[in-house]
């Protein structure tokens, strides 16, 4: 039985790893062919292959159904009337809210669009909301939609995969709310709203309110970014996100009550099982049916059902049953970080479990879990909390009391009994005070890139230690295997590396990072958002952190427009900037004007300003930078217009790479400018479905006449350029290098 489930799971994983999906008929052809072969040659050993193919075909067809429900590209930025039910709500502040909507009715505002569009979910932003939204609320609105699309950058959160995994078929923003029901909804929706409101009324400390809303209804709106950072530093994020731990608490509470009833009514032998599943299901409904909670509920249900009526099924078989059931219900779970973490943690617990556990053994178990989970932590988070085992040793028992205690208090407070209010306030405040104190120590969380030798060493050590628990492998042998890797970390020799340049997919803006050995240059920083924050934080910063960049030798802000300078403060807050150039002087003494003719040479790379600081407007004053290394040349013209381009024509060399002026606006990229530079590759840094219509069709036409290659960050993702004195000039886009079926 277990081998069959492994075969089916293999099929699911193969389906998820496909870079592109075949046509539907392709999978049907594969399934029919394998079936005919099985009938023609009934070899018992082929049964496993049949199950692998079954998992592959089932999952692939599921993916097809999800992708074909997406809003087509040609209907990007069109308006739709939607009536739907609010599924999730996240307030950034009083001026901005993001929410997911399950459409009940949807039609285009334009009569010229005749499209049978039936999305499973849409994700919307609402600026300056004039009313509160609640989970379960039914609303009608007009929204401007576009297909699910995410920026693709190295070491970046894959937003597009996140949308795909959650079945979101369109994203956009609210233009108008036409109707919003303030009451109604299911019993679970009403209960959820009442619980959230009661918590706010009962507890005055906002941190406590946020924590208790998170663990009771899954509402995390009151948790601040500082709260999340504290949870991350202490390794307790899983306590504030309703998942296996919380569902397990409720199932355990149901079991205890059920056993109490069973002792008094021996005839109802199924009571512990029924109450466990019922309480877990009720808690799942109130929490909003989040994917982690659904996964946990399935695992708990499988555990209980397989032990009902005295059936004996070993833990590993139960684990595989739960895994297959989760994948059958929702094959896209394989794209969820929580899926891997939860099943890996349970597998390790099965592997490491002991019959008797005292305090010392519990701590050892926590430490072994940390070691065993290290590879996944490095893959998903590029870091690990060093204090997590000790904190969780205290926090998990604490939350096993807090969750049922909080729910009991909420029920009692509805009839005016508030005996538990003060103890819960004290416990909640104590948790945050203690966590903040521990997180204040800088060494509580360690970041390690999996691409580093150190990261590989840690993964190897973790894997071997876990294997040694199964097989009697000597610890000395483990040390001998890992030692060469660790020595490689210590004696990582210095040698000259190629010039590396990244042009980031940062939306409607520009950010270019250059690295040559230990020299770092940043040209522009992308836009900031009216909802708060800057694109640099999510598009560029994770990559620079992974490269262990601490110093920016030269920061160049081409001009003051927000789409080029919006991330400047983020750069200052994370890096030590040695030199700064701009087309205008700032109030800081470090700034220098980018005068034409300014030139410097670093690590064999030549940098020359061809223009800057003069012009009739900000765009025309842009710092124009020429970068040369060997036979490779890159020109960064900022947002200069045609007039400035014409003034530069006689000074321009032929270049390998050209970042198109002003994102491909028709006011730039003149015929004369393009003829002078003759770029092999022209790169447009533009936002997806931007309302400026960049790059302009006429610009694309002018560039296409040069017979060179065109790349657009909105379509190809981040662009990587490399200049190597031995192998020459090369360029590749991230979407080309890393194809994914959801892109």
Automatic annotation (TrEMBL):
Residues 216-466 form the ComEC/Rec2-related protein domain. Its main location: membrane. InterPro entries: ComA-like_MBL (IPR035681), ComEC_N (IPR004477), Competence_ComEC/Rec2 (IPR004797), Competence_DNA_uptake (IPR052159), DUF4131 (IPR025405), Metallo-B-lactamas (IPR001279), RibonucZ/Hydroxyglut_hydro (IPR036866). The chain crosses the membrane at residues 21-41, 47-65, 239-262, 282-305, 317-333, 369-388, 394-420, 441-467, 473-491. One of its GO terms (cellular component) is plasma membrane. It is found in: Cell membrane. GO terms for biological process: establishment of competence for transformation. NCBIfam families: ComEC_N-term (TIGR00360), ComEC_Rec2 (TIGR00361). This is DNA internalization-related competence protein. Residues 506-687 form the Metallo-beta-lactamase domain. Keywords: Cell membrane, Membrane, Transmembrane, Transmembrane helix. SUPFAM superfamilies: Metallo-hydrolase/oxidoreductase. It is a multi-pass membrane protein. Residues 25-178 form the DUF4131 domain. It comes from the Bacteria.
């Amino acid at each position: 039985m277990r081998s069959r489930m492994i075969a089916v799971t293999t099929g699911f994983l193969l389906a998820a790893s496909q870079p592109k999906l075949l046509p539907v008929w392709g999978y049907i052809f594969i399934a029919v062919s394998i079936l005919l072969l099985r009938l023609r040659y009934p070899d018992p050993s082929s049964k496993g292959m049949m199950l692998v193919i079954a998992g592959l075909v089932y999952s692939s067809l599921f993916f097809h159904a999800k992708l074909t429900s997406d809003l087509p590209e040609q209907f990007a930025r069109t308006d739709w009337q939607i009536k739907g039910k609010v599924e999730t709500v996240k307030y950034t502040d009083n001026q901005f809210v993001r929410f997911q909507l399950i459409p009940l009715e949807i039609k285009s505002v334009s009569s010229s669009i005749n499209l049978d569009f039936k999305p499973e979910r849409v994700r919307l932003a609402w600026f300056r909301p004039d009313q509160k939204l609640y989970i379960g609320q039914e609303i009608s609105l007009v929204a401007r939609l576009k297909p699910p699309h995410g920026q693709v950058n190295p070491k970046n959160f894959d937003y597009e995969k996140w949308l795909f995994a959650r079945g979101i078929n369109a994203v956009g923003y609210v233009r108008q709310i036409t109707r919003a029901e303030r009451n109604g909804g299911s019993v679970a929706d009403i209960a959820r709203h009442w619980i959230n409101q009661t918590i706010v009324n009962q507890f005055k400390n906002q941190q406590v309110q946020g924590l208790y809303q998170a663990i009771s209804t899954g509402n995390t709106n009151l948790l601040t970014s500082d709260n999340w950072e504290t949870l991350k530093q202490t390794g307790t994020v899983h306590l504030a996100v309703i998942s296996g731990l919380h569902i397990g608490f409720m199932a355990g509470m149901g079991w205890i009550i059920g056993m109490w009833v069973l002792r008094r009514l021996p005839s109802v032998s199924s009571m512990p099982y029924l109450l466990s599943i019922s309480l877990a299901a009720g808690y799942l409904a109130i929490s909003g049916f989040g994917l982690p909670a659904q996964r946990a509920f399935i695992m708990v249900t499988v555990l209980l059902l397989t032990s009902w009526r005295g059936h004996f099924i070993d833990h590993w078989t139960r684990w595989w049953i739960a895994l297959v059931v989760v994948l059958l219900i929702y094959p896209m779970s394989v794209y969820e970080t929580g899926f891997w973490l939860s099943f890996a943690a349970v597998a390790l617990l099965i592997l490491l479990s002991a019959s008797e556990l005292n305090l010392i053994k519990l701590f050892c178990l926590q430490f072994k879990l940390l070691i065993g989970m290290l590879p996944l932590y490095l893959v998903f988070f590029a870091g690990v909390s060093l204090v997590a085992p000790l904190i969780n040793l205290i926090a998990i028992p604490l939350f096993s009391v807090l969750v049922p205690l909080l729910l009991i208090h909420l029920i009692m407070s509805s009839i005016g009994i508030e005996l538990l209010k003060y103890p819960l306030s004290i416990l909640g405040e104590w948790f945050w005070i203690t966590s903040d104190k521990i997180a204040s120590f800088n060494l509580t969380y360690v970041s390690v890139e999996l691409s580093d030798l150190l990261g590989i060493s840690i993964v190897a050590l973790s894997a071997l230690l876990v294997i040694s628990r199964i097989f009697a492998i000597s610890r000395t042998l483990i040390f001998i295997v890992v030692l060469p890797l660790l020595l490689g970390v210590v004696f990582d020799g210095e040698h000259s590396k190629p010039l590396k340049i990244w042009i980031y997919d940062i939306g409607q803006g520009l950010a270019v990072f250059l690295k040559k050995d230990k020299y770092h240059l940043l040209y522009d920083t992308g836009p900031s958002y009216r909802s708060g924050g800057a694109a640099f934080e999510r598009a560029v910063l994770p990559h620079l952190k992974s490269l262990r960049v601490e110093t920016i030798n030269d920061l160049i802000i081409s001009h003051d427009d927000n789409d080029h300078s919006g991330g400047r403060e983020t750069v200052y807050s994370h890096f030590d900037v040695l030199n700064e150039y701009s087309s205008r002087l700032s109030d800081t003494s470090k700034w220098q004007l980018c005068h034409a003719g300014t030139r410097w040479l670093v690590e064999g790379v030549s940098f020359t300003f061809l223009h800057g600081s003069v012009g009739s407007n900000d765009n025309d004053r842009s710092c124009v930078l020429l970068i040369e290394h060997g036979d490779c040349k890159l020109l960064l013209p900022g947002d200069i217009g045609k007039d400035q381009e014409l003034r530069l024509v006689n000074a321009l060399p032929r270049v390998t790479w050209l970042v198109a002026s002003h994102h491909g606006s028709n006011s730039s990229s003149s015929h004369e400018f393009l003829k002078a530079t003759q770029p092999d590759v022209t790169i447009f840094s533009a936002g997806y479905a931007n309302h400026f219509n960049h790059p302009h069709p006429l610009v694309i036409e002018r560039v296409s006449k040069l017979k060179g290659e065109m790349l657009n960050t909105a379509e190809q993702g981040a662009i990587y350029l490399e200049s190597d004195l031995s192998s020459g000039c090369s360029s590749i886009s991230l979407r080309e290098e890393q194809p994914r079926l959801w892109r």
